[in-house]
Design a protein that fits this description.
It is a single chain. It contains nine helices and eight strands. The protein is an alpha/beta fold. It folds into two domains: about 150 residues, 3-Layer(aba) Sandwich (Rossmann fold); about 60 residues. The protein has a six-stranded parallel β-sheet, sandwiched between helices. Helix 8 links the parallel strand 7 and strand 8.
Length: about 240
Amino acid sequence: MLEFHSPVFSKILLFDIDGTLLLSGRAGYRALTRAFEDLFGVARGFDQVPVAGMTDDLILTDALARAGVTADGEARARFHRRYCELFADEIHFPGPRKGLMPGVSALLERLSHLDQIRCGLVTGNFAEPAQIKLRHFDLWHFFHFGAYGDDAPVRDALVPIAVERAERDGVRVRAAADVVVIGDTPLDVQCATAAGARSIAVATGNYEEAALRQTEAHAVLSDFSDTDAVVALLLGE
């Protein structure tokens, strides 16, 4: 649970990336698959591995277990490096539904002009691929801090890490309710709940609105198309 002892001046918005802000056209899947075969000799090692809302570290652990492969810390570090190299290549190729989710650019642009708002990331992506994909879609400059899949294997641990980094950058909030997690899966909602933060779910990924309404999300959106309505919701108006 988050604790705050500092003066108030901001609200922290923590965005997921994949399925929430954008889709990379399966660049991540292709890079993961290539790296796994390169290092462990197993083809299509991620075909049966669930990925929605999971951290890259946990996705790798699952793939290794399913393939019956034992990998020590150094082997995992080599995989991480190879995956990042391959992702930087794969992001440039076309793929299914590759692009920004509806309304994302307009929303982030509007939020960037609000003094009381600071935008960050809470994503299962490793930090380097997260930055690569956001730079590719010209979104990286909107985000000031974040927590990533190489910070902790479990998503529930990421919100406190992101908030701590925000505070080190001078961001101050009064309480956990001034932190809002925005994502497209039940695991995004769950990590917000674990931290005592608010959550807004958006049905632009693999989960429909009906499924997201079964979670503890404070609100569920079809997408970000209505900029005014989304900003009002994020501000708690």
